[in-house]
Automatic annotation (TrEMBL):
Source superkingdom: Bacteria
Organism: Helicobacter macacae MIT 99-5501
CinA C-terminal domain sequence ranges: 93-241
InterPro entries, alphabetized: CinA-like_C, CinA_C
Name of the protein this chain belongs to: CinA C-terminal domain-containing protein
Amino acid sequence: MQTSPNAKTNTQTPLSKIYFLNMQITDAMTLCGEMLKKCALVCEKDSDICATIYAAQSQNNLEENQARFSEFVVWCKGFFGANVLFGDCLDSIALERLKAQNLMCATAESCTGGLLAYHFTRNAGASAVFLGGVVSYDNSIKQGILGVRESSLQDFGAVSEKVVSEMLHGVIDRFGAQVALASSGIAGPSGGSAQKPVGCVFLGVQKRGEKPLIEQYFFTGTREQIQEQSCQKALEMLLKII
């Protein structure tokens, strides 16, 4: 496997993002090792499902780089099938996956304030799979529209796995969606605590009739950066279940 020791030291222009589904990314990158070497490419892990593909430092011919990358893409699709995706825009990739499976989705957002819904609707043709969303910023909206229990808010707090689970259930039920995404967290710059500091975000995705996937993350940066990181991670989580 060819990897750069540190992504920040790679000065080459990235060729594409690669997403590995239903497998450990380290295992997938190992399986790609010989082909990466043959095509003079470098693969750097970005997250638990995503990596960036670069041309090796010594390869500076753009046309040759693209040809080598195309060869790698063909090999990957033949080897991994539907479990590998290429592209730089995560929301459009998620949209195409939803379309391919005829799945309608909806969002229930708190800390992301509608940004997650925007990531869907900024793509032409989003209406084919995106029903809509609820920005349940206030707890009264979580209760009144999404059906979150008052006891859950009191016992666990709005920023919790329990509340995100109920937000998912509520938006699936209200919208008649097959897939839902939900967010609740503390985007800052104030409002954090020792237990739940600024950047603490619970994200959830769920297919109707299946167990939800809910994760807790601790993001850093400005309010806007935390919101955007939350959306990107939620979209990655979505790819894991569709």
